[in-house]
Every structure is written in C-alpha cells, then in structure tokens.
Amino acid sequence: MTTGNHRRLGAEALLDLVHEAFRTEVAAALPPEKRYLAAMMTNAIDIARRELAVEDEALAFELLDPFYDDGDGTLTQLARDIRSGEVSDKTHPDLRARLKAHLANELAVRNPGFLAARGHERRAVKRR
Amino acid sequence: MPSPPTPAAPDPVARPPLEPASFAPLEPWLARELAADAVRIASASLLAGGAVQQNWRLDAEVTGGPRAGTHAWVLRTDAAASLSMSLDRLSEFRCIEAAHRAGVRVAEPIVASDDVALIGRAFAIQALVAGNAQGRRIVRDPALAEFGDALAAEIGRELACIHSVKPAAGTLPFLPVPLHNPSRMAVAEMRKSLDGASEPRPALEYILSWLDANAPEPKAITLVHGDFRTGNYMVDAGHLTAILDWEFCHWGDPREDIGWFIARCWRFGNDDKVAGGISRLASLLDGYNAVADAKVGAAELAYFEVLAAARWATIALLQGDRFIKSGERSLELALTGLMPPEMEWDALDIIERLAGRGRVT
Questions:
Q1: B-chain residues within 8 Å CB-CB of A94?
Q2: B124-168, pLDDT tens digit by residue?
Q3: Contact B122, B89 (CB under 8 A)
Q4: 8 Å CB contact between B18 and B119
Q5: Which CATH class name applies to B20-127?
Q6: Is B202 on the interface with A (CB under 8 A)?
Q7: Pick the CATH number of B135-356 from 3.20.20.150, 3.40.50.11540, 3.90.1200.10, 3.30.70.100
Q8: ipTM score
Q9: Chain A residues closer than 8 Å to B356 by CB
Q10: In chain B, what are the domain boundaries?
Q11: What is the 3-state secondary structure (H, E, C) of B213-252?
C-alpha cells in the first residue's frame, strides 16, 4: 500500500518510502529463507503506517464514553468492571456491540484483511 | 487445559549452537540406552523450520541389541525460552510414549534425556516419519478435494485414540488432574495471566465472563493433546502419518482438542472447511465417534470454539509481552502480540450467534 502524496517529510512519508523501497528493491533480492522475515517486515511497516493515521485515545474514548462520565474511565477499568460484573449485558445491553465496534477499529489498523475476509466493511480510520 | 502461559525469561545461560560434531557424546550413551554393542551416528543435519527449537536428522547405525540395524531418527532439542505452560522435553516425551502405547500414530519415541552434559540441552529422539506438516501447504493442496474428508475422519479416529488415555495410577503422574470443571479452571487461569499482561483487553474479559457463566458439565477427563490442529500433524499422500508437538499435553475435557482443531484461526484461510481447513466437521466427528467411548455432537462444540479463541488470544497477548516486558527482541513475537482482536472478534461472533438462538446468555 503506497499512498504517494504527502504534504510534509514526516514519519508517514518516510515510512511510505521505506515500505516501497523495501518491497520493490530489497525483498525481491533476498534468498528464499529470508522471505518470511521480509513479509513480516512489510506487514509491520504497514501496521505502523496505519497506526500513525489514527488517534488511539479517540478510539478508546469512543468505547469508554458510554460507561464512564467525563472521560474518567480507562480500558483497564472497563476490563476490571466487566470481570466483576459491574458492567455486563444486563447493565449495558449494547455492551457486546460496543466491544465489537472497538475491535473493528483495532483490526482496521492491525489487520484490515481479517475484517474483509469476514465480510465486514472496513471502518475509516480517524486522521489526526 | 494447561495453565495459560506467562512469558518465560530469556535463557539465563547462553548455550553453544549445535553442530554435527556435537552429537558424538551421544554414541556411547545411546549404546547403553538401547542395549546395543555400539551406536555410530553416521551423519547429522539440521532440518528446516524450528524457529524456537531445533530438529536434527540423525542417521545411525546400531550394532547388536534389539534395535540392530540402520535408522533415520529426528532429535528435537528444547527451546532456549518457551511458554511456562509447555512441558519440558522429557515430560513431553513421556506423553508421546503413553500415546504410542495407546496406538496413536506418532513418530516412534526412541529415547530422551534432560542431562545437559550430553549435548548441552535436553532432547528427545523419535523415528523419522515421511510427510508434510505445513498447515498452509496442506490446506492449499490441489488434491485436498479428493482426500480432505477421509483425512479428517482419520484425524478424528486418532484424536479419539488419544482421548482413550485416562488418568490412572502411574499414568503420567506429573500431569495434574483437574479437581473442578476444567473449562472454569481454564478461565480462572487465563484471568490470572491477563492480570499480569501489559495490555487491558475488555473484549477478552467479556468472553471469559461468558465462558465462566456457560461452562458445560465436563466429559470424563482424558489425555488432551493441547495443540491439536492443522500444522501439528504430518500428511503423506493424503494420509496422516504422525501427530506432532505434544508439549501442551494435559488432563482435561476431550472437547478442548476438537474445539481447538476447528477454531477459525487454525483453518489457514479455508474458512468454509470447519475441520482444520481440510474438511467438513461431520467427517471429523464421524471418525471421532466411531472410536470414542464418549460421543461428541456438533452442537456442544461452539462453547469449545470460544474457549479456543480465548486461549489463543491470551497466548498471543503474552507472546507480545515476551517482547514488551521480557525484552526478547523478535518481530514475530511482536506481531503475534497484535493478534488478540482477531480471536476476540471470532469469539464474539459465536457468542452472538448462540445468543440469537437463545441457547445461552
């Protein structure tokens, strides 16, 4: 995935160029036993590029806002409250749907192909 | 199910790499172990794969004793660093011996030792078996349409054979027998692992709460392979030749193994072939139920698919922590650590489907 146009020579532009150069000029020249490593490297660069384009905190707040007032909650708190039963399907009937929406956001960064294979439309990531 | 893993510390003692000459000290030792006059290792070569532990092919000539003749063996070393849930090489070997005695198709166990004076690490030797174990190659084999159903039935029969091994006095005494519902025990152990993990996972906590609330009555406890999936058995000309990787073997509910085998994450992209990416579920269960004394129906497996997804998500999270917390610099571990949302998604899908049918909460 090469996006091409960048307005500044920042992290996104540099990763974009590294990805393209590695994929087209380096990976193809590697011996077969290094191909798995090369595939992991291009995958990691892809994930990093997508992660740079999203605001992690915004994604967390989107999940947490319905459960906690005034931005008080954290993912750790929510995990704890689900375990204790403080937050459940009974207290929040849309809990499972909200968790899935959060996973869809994470997967759009970490592995968009996973969602596509399950017929789930990839959600647009939020730009800073 | 074994205790979910905690990241193991890197090997505190740097071990010199193995080379063909490293196996010379084995010759007199093997002669004693095999009651032979002499054993000569004619050649030793490193086999492909084995990022974590190494597999060496040994061509040996045994003079005298019950194994006199030439042999092709595989020597498997232990890993420098592994998951704490995994058995050490010698305990794994004892499980393979128990399975072999029960008639399970495994590479014949020859001998094992944890004496580091021999080659610097624990090892086990088994007979060399023909076949391919690469999951992706198996599910993409153009001939899969012809042999997939028969192979799944064969795998089902072998799995039932593993589950014919029951806890009894003197049988694998080092494996703890679960005192309560093994599924609930697995949930408790996964929660314990999550308490020490670097990343909070609310979705995984939700899945564990569901597993705790919906745990079925256990079947009679049996030997459970613990990592029974495509990629961990060998196939030659469309037939199963050996079941590999017994390091997660434990006593538990036999349905754990079936749930793990059919979990979507182990279908290697062949999602419509529920049985490990190779076949229909019915073929696997037909083979299984033809041999098993406790029959298993498709409807009771959804729970164990969710359990499998939760377990793999927990393992993946902790693999990532081996990099984040224990400093093992590995791109593969880091990428594995990013995978939990995939298994969580699949688990929530199943839970949603079951809730829609009103079968469970």
A1: none
A2: 999 999 999 999 999 999 999 999 999 999 999 999 999 999 998
A3: yes
A4: yes
A5: alpha beta
A6: yes
A7: 3.90.1200.10
A8: 0.90
A9: none
A10: 20-127, 135-356
A11: HCCCCCCCCEEECCCCCCCCEEEECCEEEEECCCCCCEEE
